[in-house]
């Protein structure tokens, strides 16, 4: 359970305290992850099924790694090799997998709300690994974790110290790119605003969804005012597969007006401003290679923290908190 | 005992005849024989005690999908008519998007034969505007009318070609048939699945802008002005459409419009609150609070002529899916009255206007018989208990499909008795749920 929630389908339903409880647990999970012998028996005997209806490498590997470090059995299922190609519905697929008694279903799906639909039909826990343009809650959590870590370090905290997540309050984060199609942007927005940060979103008007202000975002269409004075910038991936939609005329113009290169980063960003990206990066489109690999980039920290956050989520949803209370194995 | 029925002590609300008060309605030989304050009841007639209830003309629904022929697993003419009777509807217009579509007389005749066999409600078939609803060639309006069609529509599909729409309006004039139009610019709809706005943004669902309806309403009003004829806007849902229709009526164009109970009651925020429940997915989608306020006001002031349910039965095969993949549409015949009555309690509509929007309003729009309890009219009437609380559950529905946004809700207001042509076609047992 995360607070009162049996499932993690988004950050929108979570309270600030529930989000903090996951992040705090992720700190001890990160310590386990960094051990030379990184296997603990915490979730031994539990089964985690990764149900991926969309191609994914890093998220699926991250969940699989997280499950295996905690000694859960991780089973990967992808739709290309499944009965979905034979016309089976999502609910049928979920019920069939559920009949094999998994403890957690991790679902990636191209339709918004798919994990919630599954959660209504199965008795095991459901974790969204990204649903359509809705939410990608573990990405949101790992971004919160990475940003907190960065701000604590920039504020002089000793290396390796546990981050203080209160540090996000009052910070300004810019999210740049195709916000309309981005589940990362939505989870970041929910998480950041709940922890007291200010969020600017930026992109061409065709990529900014109507009414995003109601989620607490300040909207910009020009990059400079969006990133100037920001404490961090989250650059979103431009999805080449969607360029066919008439959202932008092409990547060349996009890169010129909404991409970050070394010159813009040097002139427009504050010295301590961090750059995040959910990956995979289109080098030379949203980020110039020098920026993606530069000193401001915390992109690889995001990847590492992703495993820690997912360990925390799996632990809590597989009944870890309950077992811990009973004196069971603890990470 | 004769076939005479005395319905006594009920509040008769019949806007068409201007009656609102406690009356006795006498039904004889299938017709309304008398509506009077005091009448001596002979001993050998059936008496219905309607004290505390409303007695109204039977409701008319200009917009239902009966799914027969072709999709009988969702609904048949008989189950749809049964649902109609249970909701107080004595007449329904059956949209032509059956399989095959009602673009020829054999389909029209089949629907009418099924309706006669069921004998539960008057079923008026609506023929297609275009052959196969493909938007390419005009259907045979004269033949369709001769077989029993009362209007024309490609409902479910907008008429994309302005040129064909022009010809349809012109040609239909020869038969004085109204065109009832589904207004959506499909290019603007794109892959949208709910109203475009903050709720869609939060849910990460693709939005359908209000303008997708409004540009088509504007186009068709311009064409109506060019051609003459009769245009009826189906399930009007936006403030912009309301403005356009209001202005067109002011200029004297022959346009009428309907609104559904769900667009009157719900908004896109209800989709968000339901967490992707597909019983809230329909076309046009549930709109913003401002749009809802506009359609409410327009129904109250007569800009919108009537309430139509757009009863759209779907089975779990089409609905128990991801929101993106689920079919559009909700059932509505059995919940229209309590949903309308809630608007009366909210002060949106008067009781008289609610009844008018379900009876005389639709009858006038399509020039159908019924919608009145005038002496000599067919005895199509409903007895309604405006205080009856009931829990909307699947087992209570007579429709084959249960895709209602009110499933599980407690509703107030229920039809207790329905007569068609003087014959009782629905009777709720005393104390029945």
Automatic annotation (TrEMBL), chain A:
<feature type="binding site">
    <location>
        <position position="139"/>
    </location>
    <ligand>
        <name>carbamoyl phosphate</name>
    </ligand>
</feature>
<dbReference type="Pfam" id="PF02729">
    <property type="entry name" value="OTCace_N"/>
</dbReference>
<dbReference type="InterPro" id="IPR036901">
    <property type="entry name" value="Asp/Orn_carbamoylTrfase_sf"/>
</dbReference>
<dbReference type="InterPro" id="IPR006130">
    <property type="entry name" value="Asp/Orn_carbamoylTrfase"/>
</dbReference>
<keyword id="KW-0808">Transferase</keyword>
<keyword id="KW-0665">Pyrimidine biosynthesis</keyword>
<comment type="pathway">
    <text>Pyrimidine metabolism; UMP biosynthesis via de novo pathway; (S)-dihydroorotate from bicarbonate: step 2/3.</text>
</comment>
<dbReference type="Pfam" id="PF00185">
    <property type="entry name" value="OTCace"/>
</dbReference>
<dbReference type="InterPro" id="IPR002082">
    <property type="entry name" value="Asp_carbamoyltransf"/>
</dbReference>
<dbReference type="GO" id="GO:0016597">
    <property type="term" value="F:amino acid binding"/>
</dbReference>
<dbReference type="InterPro" id="IPR006131">
    <property type="entry name" value="Asp_carbamoyltransf_Asp/Orn-bd"/>
</dbReference>
<feature type="binding site">
    <location>
        <position position="183"/>
    </location>
    <ligand>
        <name>L-aspartate</name>
    </ligand>
</feature>
<feature type="binding site">
    <location>
        <position position="59"/>
    </location>
    <ligand>
        <name>carbamoyl phosphate</name>
    </ligand>
</feature>
<feature type="binding site">
    <location>
        <position position="58"/>
    </location>
    <ligand>
        <name>carbamoyl phosphate</name>
    </ligand>
</feature>
<dbReference type="GO" id="GO:0004070">
    <property type="term" value="F:aspartate carbamoyltransferase activity"/>
</dbReference>
<dbReference type="GO" id="GO:0006520">
    <property type="term" value="P:amino acid metabolic process"/>
</dbReference>
<feature type="binding site">
    <location>
        <position position="237"/>
    </location>
    <ligand>
        <name>L-aspartate</name>
    </ligand>
</feature>
<dbReference type="InterPro" id="IPR006132">
    <property type="entry name" value="Asp/Orn_carbamoyltranf_P-bd"/>
</dbReference>
<comment type="function">
    <text>Catalyzes the condensation of carbamoyl phosphate and aspartate to form carbamoyl aspartate and inorganic phosphate, the committed step in the de novo pyrimidine nucleotide biosynthesis pathway.</text>
</comment>
<feature type="binding site">
    <location>
        <position position="279"/>
    </location>
    <ligand>
        <name>carbamoyl phosphate</name>
    </ligand>
</feature>
<comment type="similarity">
    <text>Belongs to the aspartate/ornithine carbamoyltransferase superfamily. ATCase family.</text>
</comment>
<feature type="binding site">
    <location>
        <position position="86"/>
    </location>
    <ligand>
        <name>L-aspartate</name>
    </ligand>
</feature>
From TrEMBL, chain B:
<comment type="function">
    <text>Catalyzes the reversible cyclization of carbamoyl aspartate to dihydroorotate.</text>
</comment>
<dbReference type="GO" id="GO:0004038">
    <property type="term" value="F:allantoinase activity"/>
</dbReference>
<feature type="binding site">
    <location>
        <position position="182"/>
    </location>
    <ligand>
        <name>Zn(2+) 2</name>
    </ligand>
</feature>
<feature type="binding site">
    <location>
        <position position="314"/>
    </location>
    <ligand>
        <name>substrate</name>
    </ligand>
</feature>
<protein>
    <recommendedName>
        <fullName>Dihydroorotase</fullName>
        <ecNumber>3.5.2.3</ecNumber>
    </recommendedName>
</protein>
<keyword id="KW-0378">Hydrolase</keyword>
<keyword id="KW-0479">Metal-binding</keyword>
<dbReference type="InterPro" id="IPR004722">
    <property type="entry name" value="DHOase"/>
</dbReference>
<feature type="binding site">
    <location>
        <begin position="65"/>
        <end position="67"/>
    </location>
    <ligand>
        <name>substrate</name>
    </ligand>
</feature>
<keyword id="KW-0665">Pyrimidine biosynthesis</keyword>
<feature type="binding site">
    <location>
        <position position="97"/>
    </location>
    <ligand>
        <name>substrate</name>
    </ligand>
</feature>
<dbReference type="GO" id="GO:0004151">
    <property type="term" value="F:dihydroorotase activity"/>
</dbReference>
<feature type="binding site">
    <location>
        <position position="155"/>
    </location>
    <ligand>
        <name>Zn(2+) 1</name>
    </ligand>
</feature>
<dbReference type="InterPro" id="IPR011059">
    <property type="entry name" value="Metal-dep_hydrolase_composite"/>
</dbReference>
<dbReference type="GO" id="GO:0044205">
    <property type="term" value="P:'de novo' UMP biosynthetic process"/>
</dbReference>
<dbReference type="InterPro" id="IPR024403">
    <property type="entry name" value="DHOase_cat"/>
</dbReference>
<dbReference type="Pfam" id="PF12890">
    <property type="entry name" value="DHOase"/>
</dbReference>
<dbReference type="GO" id="GO:0008270">
    <property type="term" value="F:zinc ion binding"/>
</dbReference>
<feature type="binding site">
    <location>
        <position position="63"/>
    </location>
    <ligand>
        <name>Zn(2+) 1</name>
    </ligand>
</feature>
<feature type="domain" description="Dihydroorotase catalytic">
    <location>
        <begin position="52"/>
        <end position="238"/>
    </location>
</feature>
<dbReference type="GO" id="GO:0006145">
    <property type="term" value="P:purine nucleobase catabolic process"/>
</dbReference>
<dbReference type="GO" id="GO:0005737">
    <property type="term" value="C:cytoplasm"/>
</dbReference>
